[in-house]
Amino acid sequence: MAPSTPVSMAAKLSLLLILVAVLVIGSEAIAQGRKLKETNMVFYMHDYETGTNISAIPVAGNPLKKWFILEFGTIIAIDDAATVAFERNSTEIGRLQGMYVNSAKDGTDLHWLVSLVFTNKAYNGSTLEIQGANREFQKYREVSVVSGTGLFRFARGYATLETVLLDLDNLNAIVRWNLTVLHY
Known about the structure:
By secondary structure, the protein is mainly β. It has one helix at 9-31, and strands at 37-48, 56-60, 75-83, 92-102, 110-118, 127-134, 140-149, 156-167, 172-183.
């Protein structure tokens, strides 16, 4: 018979606390009797690397090449306006803040890691966390909504993206987002 290895009381207590935490977090929504809600919204992201209101700026990349959106390895920090209409001065619902990385050797794929930070009255203070591959030269692309805060706690869903304006000479774009989110 193999000798038994004693397990310390601290290890047992730690394991028990982890198990309790998982059960509490996993059952919070069920215990409170909340039902899943679906929120759909359409907005326009204004992404400008040039001009008077720059909202996207390359912060790192290949040291042997110019850093820009179509160059593999370029990392761009963003703080883009999200508006209700195509026009830049239309009502703002929030800001898309975070970064994207050109993660394809041929320059056609941006990996997104962004927060949609709401500033409008309806969702002010809430956020949605969005990530995924944005194959920017496809007419329609889909990225994942992986989490949220405030009114969008425990959110999950997706967004379909469509570039409605692409000015490659000035590196500016307007992207239409069609967002579907499930949340409590």
